[in-house]
Amino acid sequence: MPxxxxxxxxxxxxxxxxxxxxxxIETLLxxxxxxxxxxxxxEIIDLSMLPAWVMDPQRGLATYRVSPSGAELLxxxxxxxxxxxxxxxxxxxxxxLRRDGVPSLRVTTTNDNIAALRFYQRRGFTLQSLRPGAVxxxxxxxPEIPLIGHNNIPIRDxxxxxxxxx
Length: 166
Ligand SMILES: CC(C)(COP(=O)(O)OP(=O)(O)OC[C@H]1O[C@@H](n2cnc3c(N)ncnc32)[C@H](O)[C@@H]1OP(=O)(O)O)[C@@H](O)C(=O)NCCC(=O)NCCS
Fold this sequence. Notes:
Layout: E1 3-6, E2 11-16, H1 22-33, E3 37-40, E4 43-46, E5 52-56, E6 60-67, E7 70-78, H2 85-99, E8 104-110, H3 114-122, E9 126-131, H4 134-138, E10 158-164
Parallel strand pairs: 7-8
Antiparallel strand pairs: 1-2, 2-5, 3-4, 5-6, 6-7, 8-10, 9-10
Bound molecules: coenzyme A.
Residues 7-8, 75-78, 81-87, 109, 113, 115-116, 119, 122 line the site of coenzyme A.
């Protein structure tokens, strides 16, 4: 269900994506992830084809997929950080998944992304696994993945976190 979301200065609308969102979603993914295709846990996934929650007007995007074993958050982007957009999109997704009886939500991040590790753990996610060198392997499929990431840390490893929903 769409719902309003208020910060100190603006009012946004949080809602599931539609096909009309395709062009700006592709532009956002290109700008933030170097393309619509993500290489993660040895899979190539086109994020622009996934279901998503969006924050209007084009302020944020959370792409995800659901399988019988649980859901996976593939990307979460807040155009302006620290305004609550990431939290609001994650809340909307979790509420919808719980309503549908989905047992868990998984997310993968990289070793350099300290902000994301903090963000997810503050919201109840726990560390599940570490794949040393997984990003180095992913570069064979997506050479655009930068060598150096957040905080000037080399991007090398994938880290999975998970949140139990039931
Ligand atoms: C990680 C990310 C999604 C977080 O989204 P965000 O919108 O910045 O997150 P929020 O604003 O909801 O929360 C961040 C902090 O700001 C605080 N905050 C929320 N609303 C606020 C407001 N109006 N004013 C000031 N601070 C606020 C929150 O309390 C939170 O702190 P906490 O974790 O101690 O509770 C975002 O920084 C991002 O897009 N990162 C780049 C992409 C990425 O790495 N994604 C994750 C891997 S998939």
